[in-house]
């Protein structure tokens, strides 16, 4: 029985990411606020856990140590929350105290990338049957067909067919193909623009013969009145006690072909260099399964002189072929972008011998570069750098990435960047390119984050911070701005957490912790704080 399985997968993904960063004390406030919320959640969970542990302890299901550990966990998390809240107050104070825009450092980063991939595989397998017989006779009045299976005699046997007998081996096969291409473009306010394209393909084929035949550990007689046809199959007696008589003999060897092909091309470009890469690797192997009749008597009625050349040596029934390397090409080329400007070429020629460059190109082979990259390096060798650069742009960067880098190659980095960001991401960077970093940042933050930074840009950092914290966090920092750090901290913790931190601010950490546990958990920890764990536990159990 033959089974065929085919699997296909396709995937396409496009991603665009824009980051406009504001590195200042206000963001630190936001981060500390998140940390405070997490700490409060952890304390609430620990309190719930303590209640459950207390219940299980009362039922005798947990030990005294389990109860003490749960109680100590609540104490530690209460202290941790207090310290994080204090840190939040400090960060808000720092934000309010900072003046001017010295600490304001916007950053701009754009990334756009796409991935396309598809794969396909096909597998064909055969379910075959083998008959194991001690000693016996197999008779067929007319024709017989053994496909992929075998008849095996343990002691000896006789096989007789009045008509034709076909012994045919089968092949299990596997084929797969994969293709993937990636394209990307990025621009960073510090490192400038860059682009890349990568395309890879792979194909694999495998086949393996499942041998059919008639074999015996003792004597074996085979009589076929008509034609015996063997395709990659075997008739054999392990004791060489074989007697085969047929009217006519036809045979065919089977070849298993295994191949692996991989091909990859990549192009990357940035403001300083262009890199090209090409690789192709192809291997092939052929294994032969020969139609074989083992040692013994062979009589073919229409070939009385015995001229048949069917294989009679079982040791040669299978021959593993050599793995042949059909192709193994690896080419890489990096071009300094200085070559695209007159000034850059002059600078390069001062440092490099142009003959060495030309010799290197000749070593790689202009025909190989032309064939795999579509770039005519003859122009480069002849000194036509302008023609060479245009070929490169037309054949690679523009066609593969869809990016017109002619302005970049002409040294107009500002024009190139402005066009690409405007075209691909819908961001108008004209103010940025004109040097109006403040105006650009204000527009982007207003448009993308919904934050009005006019006060910040006007130098009113205190007013901006106060507005944003009030608007986004719901925190009134008037006392903080007035210099009443203790009053502000106390108000915020009281308002947002329901915790009276007066004792904490006075340095009475033990009293503060005791009050909080008493207030939020209903547990009197006086004995616990005094080291009387036994008395504390007894009180809790009683309560």
Automatic annotation (TrEMBL):
Biased composition range(s): Polar residues: 111-135
Listed InterPro entries: Hemagglutinin_rpt (IPR025157)
Lineage of source species: Eukaryota, Metamonada, Preaxostyla, Oxymonadida, Streblomastigidae
Organism: Streblomastix strix
Origin superkingdom: Eukaryota
Annotated region (Disordered), positions in chain: 111-136, 177-209
Name under which the protein is recorded: Uncharacterized protein
UniProt-recorded Gene Ontology molecular function terms: catalytic activity
Gene3D superfamilies: Outer membrane efflux proteins (OEP)
């Amino acid at each position: 029985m033959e089974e065929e399985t085919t699997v296909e997968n396709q995937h396409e993904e496009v991603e665009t990411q824009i980051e406009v960063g504001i590195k200042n004390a206000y963001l630190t406030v936001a981060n500390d606020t998140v940390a405070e919320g997490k700490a409060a959640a952890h304390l609430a969970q620990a309190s719930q856990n303590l209640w459950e542990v207390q219940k299980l302890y009362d039922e005798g299901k947990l030990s005294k140590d389990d109860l003490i550990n749960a109680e100590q966990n609540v104490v530690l998390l209460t202290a941790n929350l207090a310290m994080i809240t204090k840190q939040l107050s400090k960060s808000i104070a720092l934000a309010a105290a900072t003046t001017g825009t010295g600490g304001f450092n916007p950053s701009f980063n754009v990334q756009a990338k796409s991935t396309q991939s598809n794969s396909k595989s096909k597998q064909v397998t055969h379910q075959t049957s083998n008959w194991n017989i001690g000693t016996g006779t197999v008779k067929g009045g007319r024709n017989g067909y053994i496909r992929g299976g075998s008849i095996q005699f343990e002691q000896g046997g006789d096989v007789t067919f009045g008509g034709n007998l076909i012994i045919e081996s089968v092949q299990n096969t596997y084929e797969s193909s994969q293709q993937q291409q990636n394209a990307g473009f990025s621009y960073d306010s510090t490192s400038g623009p860059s682009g890349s394209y990568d395309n890879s393909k792979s194909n694999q084929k495998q086949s393996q013969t499942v041998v059919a035949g008639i074999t015996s550990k003792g004597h074996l007689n085979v009589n076929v009145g008509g034609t015996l046809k063997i395709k990659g199959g075997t008739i054999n007696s392990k004791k060489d006690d074989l007697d085969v008589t047929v009217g006519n003999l036809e045979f065919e060897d089977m070849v298993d072909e295994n191949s692996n092909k991989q091909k990859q091309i990549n192009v990357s470009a940035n403001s300083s260099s262009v890199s090209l890469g090409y690789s192709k690797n192809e291997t092939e192997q052929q294994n032969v399964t020969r139609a074989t009749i083992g040692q013994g008597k062979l009589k073919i009625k229409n070939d009385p002189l015995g001229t048949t050349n069917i294989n009679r040596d079982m040791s040669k029934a299978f021959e593993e072929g050599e793995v042949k390397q059909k192709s193994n090409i690896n080419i890489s080329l990096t071009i300094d972008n200085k070559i695209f400007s007159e000034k850059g070429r002059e600078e390069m020629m001062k440092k490099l011998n142009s003959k060495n460059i030309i010799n290197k190109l000749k070593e790689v082979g202009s025909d190989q570069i032309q064939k795999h990259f579509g770039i005519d390096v003859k122009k480069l060798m002849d000194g036509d750098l302008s023609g060479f650069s245009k070929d490169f742009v037309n054949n690679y960067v523009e066609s593969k990435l869809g990016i017109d880098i002619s302005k970049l190659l002409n040294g107009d980095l500002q024009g190139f960047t402005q066009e690409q960001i405007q075209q691909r991401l819908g961001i108008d960077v004209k103010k940025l390119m004109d040097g109006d970093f403040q105006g650009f940042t204000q527009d982007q933050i207003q448009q993308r984050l919904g934050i009005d930074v006019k006060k910040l840009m006007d130098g009113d950092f205190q007013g901006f911070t106060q507005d944003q914290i009030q608007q986004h966090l719901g925190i009134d920092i008037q006392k903080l701005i007035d210099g009443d750090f203790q009053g502000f901290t106390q108000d915020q913790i009281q308002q947002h957490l329901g915790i009276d931190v007066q004792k904490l601010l006075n340095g009475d950490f033990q009293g503060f912790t005791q009050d909080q546990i008493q207030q939020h958990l209903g547990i009197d920890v006086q004995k616990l704080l005094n080291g009387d764990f036994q008395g504390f536990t007894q009180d809790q159990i009683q309560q």
